[in-house]
């Protein structure tokens, strides 16, 4: 017996998830810059399809004239006075960089 | 004497320090020894730095000897979830990708705690990048529930909750994005507070979902939680979403009698399907409040059923953006198997992230991607507005809202690991208040027939954190759930 056989809070119908959304897992993983093994691709494609089907229930809600909410309370531009402060020392900025030289981070060649 | 120190609360320890019955070094050693004895079984700690911790305690004792004590928290031991930066200490977020990362600076809350003289003991386990409800997605270890070692402590802050519950620390800091302080507090039988969004600085907190992330305290009593909140709350110019207002006196409110009067019971939260032991315990709490002179009122939060989908769309979208920074360039881990920049990105992330983090980054990437952005992300933001409106309308009639914290008690380790939706549903009563930015507290309110703790959640109006603590205190004063100790402890 799994969790959602027992609990159906808010009357959520967990058994309605029989038609997972088909997704192009290769496109999504390339956008996300994550390499996936064949096994992972297969597993995630099926799990994400099920999850998306479940998340899709918000389509039912009427949101005519509703503003999208990005913050818990209204935030406008936050300004500070243009006064120079203390700088974060370069050695601290770079202390976690995997490869560095002359106060700079070494990366693979990006321009051919 | 000292073998009992770890059973004391912050208030008690603070009094003992003030009257010089004990030194900070003595009490710090008590918790260090406690951790070394017990954590083999519990697994709450990812790392600790004994020398640094003892030095902080010695500094505290020196200050006190010179009459320069910094207040209630000076010399008190505090645990920190390993997602909040402390200069010179590891900050792994329980992820392989940050396995060797050392914080170059202090988080806003750590700076504040240091200025109060707190002794910071150890880095506490969590789900990888705080993504999970059981602490099982940690890349490094499984944390066990002190009430039953075969059960999860909840998550993502299972390390913080288990460490407080087992008396390895008197209080700890956690972070709550959709329930990560409250749900583990509920499952471990302790107190956990998610402050109003904006009350506590997020500077130095590794970001999961920036629009709901909030740092907060866990402890064994409401007063201890209030003492810790008092120390960490307040505006920080380094967090642009930090709320600009004076911090109220959270400790002083307990001396007054200015109780909230009307408690709202959302009918959607008391529907059929909730665990019987949980609903019995919560209904008893409702009876208690009713008999204690509070007015109980049924309310409706009609968009509750959409809270989980809205939360998992917004949280994964924000997380996929926030975690884009871990690309192999700047943050310690770079794959050795790379020929070019693209290899570096793809392979460093493949090697560094665990399954749940990958799943959520992929989901967040999908809901933000061209062609799906409006249907999922923007739509979810609009439904989020409706969820917040539901609360604000309810708060025109009531002062505090009462509900269970979690639909169930702790579940066995491994039960939901491969069933993400069922794991997501563990957050069903906590995500709404996160989406709306409201303060919410979980307190112990009973035990199941199998001896596992049950949590009660109280949700307040924005920036009325004191209201929920005061209402919770009424319950705590008349029940002894907080004093029960797990057998193994």
Structure characterization notes:
The complex is a heterodimer of chains A (112) and B (489). Chain A is mostly helical. Chain A has one domain. In chain A, 29% of the residues lie in helices and 4% in strands. Chain A is built from 4 helices and 2 strands; from the N terminus they run H-H-H-H-E-E. A two-stranded antiparallel ribbon of chain A has the order 1-2. In chain A, strand 1 (100-101) and strand 2 form a beta hairpin. Chain B is an alpha/beta fold and 489 residues long. Chain B has a domain at 2-257: Amidase signature (AS) enzymes (Alpha-Beta Complex), CATH 3.90.1300. Chain B is built from 15 helices and 11 strands. An 11-stranded mixed β-sheet of chain B has the order 1-3-2-4-6-5-10-11-9-7-8, with helices on both faces. In chain B, helix 2 (24-42) packs antiparallel against helix 3 (50-65), helix 9 crosses helix 11 and helix 9 (307-322) packs across helix 12. The longest helix of chain B is centred in the C-terminal third of the chain and has 21 residues, at 374-394. Chain B is globular, with a radius of gyration of 21 Å. The mean pLDDT of chain B is 95. The chains are: A mainly alpha (112), B alpha/beta (489). The interface between A and B is large, with 62 and 91 residues.
């Amino acid at each position: 017996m799994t969790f959602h056989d027992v609990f159906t809070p808010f009357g959520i119908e967990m058994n309605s998830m029989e038609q997972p959304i088909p997704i192009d897992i290769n496109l999504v993983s390339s956008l996300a810059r994550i390499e996936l093994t064949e096994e992972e691709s297969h597993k995630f494609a099926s799990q994400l399809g099920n999850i998306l089907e479940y998340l899709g229930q918000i389509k039912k809600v009427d949101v005519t004239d509703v503003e999208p909410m990005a913050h818990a309370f209204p935030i406008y531009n936050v300004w500070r006075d243009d006064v120079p402060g203390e700088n974060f020392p370069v050695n601290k900025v770079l202390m976690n960089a995997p490869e560095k030289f002359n106060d700079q981070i070494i990366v693979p060649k990006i321009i051919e | 004497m000292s073998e009992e120190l770890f059973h004391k609360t912050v208030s008690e320890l603070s009094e003992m320090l003030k009257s010089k019955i004990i030194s900070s070094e003595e009490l710090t050693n008590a918790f260090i020894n406690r951790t070394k004895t017990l954590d083999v079984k519990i697994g709450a700690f990812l790392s600790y730095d004994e020398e640094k911790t003892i030095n902080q305690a010695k500094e505290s004792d020196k200050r006190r000897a010179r009459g320069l004590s910094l207040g209630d928290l000076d010399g008190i031991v505090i645990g920190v979830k390993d997602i909040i930066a402390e200069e010179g200490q590891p900050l792994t977020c329980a992820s392989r990708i940050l396995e060797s990362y050392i914080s170059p600076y202090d988080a806003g809350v750590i700076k504040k705690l240091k200025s109060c003289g707190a002794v910071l003991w150890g880095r506490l386990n969590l789900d990888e990048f705080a993504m999970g409800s059981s602490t099982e997605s940690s890349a490094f270890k499984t944390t066990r529930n002190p009430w039953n070692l075969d059960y999860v402590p909840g998550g993502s802050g299972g390390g913080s909750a288990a460490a407080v519950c087992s008396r390895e620390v008197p209080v700890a800091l956690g972070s709550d994005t959709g329930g990560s302080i409250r749900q583990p507090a509920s499952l471990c039988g302790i107190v956990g507070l998610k402050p109003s969004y904006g009350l506590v600085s997020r500077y130095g907190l590794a970001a999961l979902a920036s629009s709901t992330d909030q740092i907060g305290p866990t402890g064994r009593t409401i007063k201890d939680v209030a003492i810790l909140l008092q120390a960490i709350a307040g505006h920080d110019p380094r967090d642009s979403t930090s709320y600009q207002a004076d911090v109220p006196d959270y400790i002083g409110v307990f001396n007054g009698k200015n109780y909230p009067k009307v408690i709202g019971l959302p009918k959607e939260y008391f529907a059929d399907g909730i665990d019987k032991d949980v609903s019995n315990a919560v209904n008893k709490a409702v009876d208690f409040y009713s008999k204690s002179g509070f007015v109980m009122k049924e309310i409706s939060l009609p968009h509750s059923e959409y809270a989980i989908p809205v939360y998992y769309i917004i949280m994964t979208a924000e997380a996929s953006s926030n975690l884009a920074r871990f690309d192999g360039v700047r943050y310690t881990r770079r794959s050795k198997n790379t020929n070019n920049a693209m290899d570096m990105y793809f392979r460093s992330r493949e090697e560094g992230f665990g399954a749940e983090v990958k799943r959520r980054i992929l989901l967040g990437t999908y809901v933000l991607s061209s062609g799906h952005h409006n249907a999922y992300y923007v739509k979810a933001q609009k439904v989020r507005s409706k969820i917040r409106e539901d609360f604000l309308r309810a708060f025109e009639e009531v002062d505090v809202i009462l509900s269970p914290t979690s639909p169930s008690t702790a579940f066995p380790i491994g039960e939901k690991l491969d069933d993400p939706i069922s794991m997501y549903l563990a957050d069903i009563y906590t995500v709404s208040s996160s989406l709306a930015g409201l303060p919410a507290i979980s307190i112990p309110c009973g035990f199941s027939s199998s001896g596992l703790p049950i949590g009660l959640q109280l949700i307040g109006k924005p920036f009325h954190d004191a209201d929920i603590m005061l209402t919770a205190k009424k319950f705590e004063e008349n029940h002894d759930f907080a004093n029960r100790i797990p057998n193994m402890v």
